[in-house]
Amino acid sequence: MNQQQFLGVLNIHKPAGITSRKVVDRVVELVKPAKAGHAGTLDPLATGVLLVCLGSATRLIPLLQQQNKEYRAQFQLGRRSNTDDVTGKITEVTAAQTVTLEQIEALLPRFVGRIEQVPPQFSAVHVDGKRAYELARRGQHVNLKPRIVTVHRIDLIDFEYPEITLEVECGSGTYIRSIGRDLGECLGCGAVMSQLVRTRIGSFSLKTSTELDRLDQDSLRQVLLPATTIVEHLPQLQCEPAELDDIRCGRPIEYHEESCCEDGKLVAVLAPDGQLACVARFRKPDRLLHPKHVFLG
Question: Which CATH number fits the domain that encloses residue 287?
Answer without folding.
Answer: 2.30.130.10
